[in-house]
Amino acid sequence: MNTTSRIWRAAGLISAVSTLLLLCGFIYAVRDVIYPVTSEPNGVGSPGDHSLNVPLQVSAMDVTAIGDSLAKGTGDDTGKGFAKRTVEILKKQGTESKLVNNLGINGLTTKKLLPMLDEPGVQYALKQAGMIMLSIGANDLFEGGEPLETRTELPSEAELNAKVKSASENLSEILAKLHDINPQARIVYISLYNPFSDMKELKNAGDKAVAQWNSIAAETMSSIDGGLVVPTFDLFTLQAGRYLSGDHFHPNGTGYQAIAERIVQGIGVQE
Question: Does pLDDT of 254 surpass 60?
């Protein structure tokens, strides 16, 4: 009799506990419906998740590079290019910095870059940067660095002027888009050099087109708060043999290092 009583009491206790657990689960479920959790504290959404609008924790020296083959680092045997080399210099000096992404594409022109800036993945990478490094325009003027052995002349002066005008209008749109995508980021534009400055038959026309382009780019960049134009023309005019890679169009590692040092000097980080 005592044994039976204990069994019934145990069964009753278990039943009561089960009922309590079910009740707690029901209350939690109702609360979850009424007060849904939309995001985790300090979380960051994925590139395709536009429902999250949580501010990113970005260092002012976190870099995203975008643009043509120079932005990518083509010609540098190490693959670092000016973007990675700039980050390395900054870190060596004790400045917190990292390369968030490199969106450089060989052969990219201003016309092709514009629609890229509407892509969610590209915008996501740009929004994570405290500094956006842009290299664009060389392929508009020089047709993507056509192999040197096939060149005997550049386009006529009138053709180059038309190319500069069209590309500079695109550049203005590109800069406006970059600023809209990430208003807090500093935009650093790597200006053009004439890769044929050591070739008598190509020097004059190339120098004039590049000088015209760089002047327009500097004027356009002046409308961007905190914008920086990094000059490269003098580097490659005076030392083309030292700074150009074997294709006689892109910088080599030494050339990219010289550009990176110019960038660090321009953004005002002192050793």
Answer: yes
Exposure of 70 in the CB half-sphere (CA atoms within 13 A): 28
The predicted pLDDT at position 201 comes to 75
Question: Is there a contact between 150 and 143 (Cβ–Cβ < 8 Å)?
Answer: no
- Between 54-63, 134-143, 164-173, 211-220, the lowest mean confidence (pLDDT) is in 54-63
- Taking 3-state DSSP, the helix, strand and coil percentages for the chain, each rounded to the nearest 5, stand at 55, 10, 35
The backbone torsions φ and ψ at residue 113, rounded to the nearest 5 degrees and listed phi first, read: -70, -35
- Strand arrangement, sheet containing 228-230: 98-104, 62-67, 131-135, 186-190, 228-230
- How many CB atoms sit inside 10 A of residue 83's CB? 32
Kindly indicate the confidence band of residue 18, based on its pLDDT and cuts at 50, 70 and 90. low
Contacts (Cβ under 8 Å, ≥6 apart) of 234: none
Q: What is the 8-class DSSP label of residue 251? A: B
The region, left, alpha or beta by phi > 0 then psi within -120 to 50, assigned to residue 47 is alpha
Q: What is the pLDDT of residue 154?
A: 62
Q: How crowded is the C-beta side of 138, counted as CA atoms within 13 Å?
A: 27
If one counts every other C-beta atom within 10 angstroms of the C-beta of residue 226, the result is 12
Report which of 185, 153, 189, 187 is spatially closest to residue 168, judged by C-alpha positions.
189
Do 260 and 251 contact (CB within 8 A), yes or no?
no
What is the rounded distance in angstroms from the CA atom of residue 79 to the CA atom of residue 83?
A: 10
